[in-house]
TrEMBL record:
The keyword Signal applies. Transmembrane segments: none annotated. PROSITE patterns: TSP_CTER. Residues 1-25 form the signal peptide. It comes from Thalassotalea profundi. InterPro entries: ConA-like_dom_sf, Ice-binding_C, Thrombospondin_C. Keywords: Signal. Residues 23-229 form the TSP C-terminal domain. The keyword Aminoacyl-tRNA synthetase does not apply. This is TSP C-terminal domain-containing protein. Pfam families: PEP-CTERM (PF07589), TSP_C (PF05735).
Length: 254
């Protein structure tokens, strides 16, 4: 038998395919990114194909961020420290709208004091705002001072990053939530932070190092997270399209 599909069902199937394509944006080209902060605070070396970057300097905080702003997005990629020298901070920034307006996720290998400031093994999620000094180590090292608001922490032994281990990182950043997970080494797709009820705004996504060299970030992708309040999920559209398809086949058979 030769059944003909109604135009509505065909359109719905096409819409499902389009939404699937939009949600798979592919690799981010790091050649379009730029360093922020003092120029001598880092050295970010991008691979020729733009899929990876190596930060080579042990020094003050340094940032390498996208030229595009994001909200309601998920980022995935791998990163790791390619040396057994030093034990300090690696991480990410997002919602970045300048050096006085961004979220900071950082990860330290071991406990260590820097003068009166203490850095702890594990993870910290902070909101950086006006008045924060991000040009030198002290304020960010201890996550304290003007313009530094710690949202959550996860400190303990065996939570530090390991030398020469590649980790997979996932960040979900929406207009009301932050979800971060790590996979690799001692972590098996472990959810590090899941914070809701926020009021977030669009901003750049990027990488962060402080007093840590030989850190490589590779193969980062960005996917769009659907807004359930305004856009039907692809699965919902698929169910509706299949329903229309079944109805059309039933009518054709009759």
């Amino acid at each position: 038998m030769n059944y003909k599909l109604p135009k509505l069902a065909i359109g719905l199937l096409f819409s499902v395919q389009c939404l699937t394509n939009v949600a798979n944006a592919g690799l981010i080209d790091l050649n379009t990114w730029s360093q922020k902060g003092a120029s001598n605070n880092g050295n970010w070396v991008v691979a020729a194909d733009g899929t990876s970057v190596l930060q080579t300097t042990n020094g003050n905080p340094t940032f390498f961020v996208s030229d595009e702003s994001f909200i309601n997005n998920e980022f995935t990629g791998t990163f790791g420290v390619e040396t057994a020298s030093d034990d300090d901070y690696i991480g990410f920034v997002f919602g970045f709208n300048g050096l006085d307006d961004f979220y900071l996720f950082d990860w330290k290998q071991t406990n260590q004091n820097l003068g009166s400031f203490s850095g702890f093994e594990g993870f910290t999620l902070s909101k950086i705002s006006a008045g924060a000094d991000v040009s030198s180590l002290n304020p960010l090292w201890g996550h304290s001072g003007t313009g530094i608001d710690v949202l959550d922490t996860k400190y303990d032994t065996n939570l530090g990053w390991e030398d020469n281990v590649e980790y997979e990182f996932t960040l979900g950043y929406t207009n009301s939530s932050i979800n971060i997970s790590i996979n690799g080494g001692n972590f098996n797709n472990e959810n590090i932070f899941n914070i809701t009820g926020l009021s977030n705004s669009a901003g750049s996504f990027g990488f962060y190092n402080a007093s840590q060299q030989s850190v490589r970030y590779t193969g980062f992708e960005e996917d769009v997270l659907p807004d359930p309040q305004s856009v039907p999920e692809p699965s919902t559209l698929a169910i509706l399209a299949l329903g229309m398809l079944g109805l059309s086949l039933r009518r054709a058979k009759k």
